[in-house]
Sequence to fold (374 residues):
Amino acid sequence: MQAVLVLAALPVLAGAWLPWVLLRPNRLAPGEYLRLPPAWAAALLVLAFLPLLAARWRPALTWVPATLVLLLAVWLLGTRTGAALVGQAEFARASAASGAWLTLLGAGVAVYGARLCTRAAGGPAWTGLLWVAGLAALVLTGTLSSWSVLVEGRSEGPRWVQELLQHLRLVGTALGLAVLIGAPLAVWASGRERVAGAVLGLANAVQTVPSLALLGLLIAPLSALANAFPALREAGVSGIGVAPALSAMTLYALLPVLRNGVVALRGVPPGAVDAARGMGMTASQRFWRVQLPLALPVWLSGVRQAAVLLVGVAAVAALIGAGGLGTYIFKGLQSAATDLILLGAVPAALLAVAVDAALRGLETLLGRRLGRAA
Fold:
């Protein structure tokens, strides 16, 4: 655990002396790199080692300096970008430079290491909420309002919200279709070795195809279907847009849903099934009352993996006109605008983390309930 804190200190040390802010007259123009004032650079150098010292002398309190490092890094990013824009034109942009990114990386690793130390020392489990609350307070008070990514977000306004909702619709719809298709297939294949091999082999083969290639391969057949059946075209099916995006995303999500479903159902203790059979339950009753509840935590793990996977694939789907946060990523790549890339990439990453945390919590809850029931 202390090795993690040593690794966390190194990026903070480097970030204290590297440029922190890139000031540009507009989104696309080259700019000027600005460094931290010496006093703040020295403060970061001191704070970089505090989590390591706390881990040696008071492990249960390691979270305090680690949280301070993270919050100071975010506060400095907000204040330095704000100071850089003083007296600049309306179109000027102040973005994070290499020093800020390295410091934030080191601070994040420090928070992770501090969490491990606090747990090992028997410290309180609620400490992780403090840095979350601190970051939320910095954002809500407008400390980061001058950061170029948030400036771009305000300028996009309702369009960004629209793309975020489209991203969520794509992920939710594709995940629902994958579960709707994969769940019956998993139940069918769980008791048939040959069927399981064929179904899982086909799903594995789909996973080997790059997402961009799969989207391209679906353009021709879906265009042909739309031309052959006008009703499909009227329903919105075409070679580009939502239809090929949902088709590709559903195919990608099938493997984790199928694989975990088969493993979960096969892992149900035979004694539980025999006991249910001895009580006179029918095959349907055994499945819904015994097998499915016992298999659900493991099966839900596959659904979680599929959901996180789909958040990333949905970003690629913007290339064929499906919309979503990937629109900003590719728009930024085309115009070499890093701020627009981050405007799409950062929310997509946070969305993946949030989905993973929510479904992981549901897994834990179901596991505890089953444990108490047993």
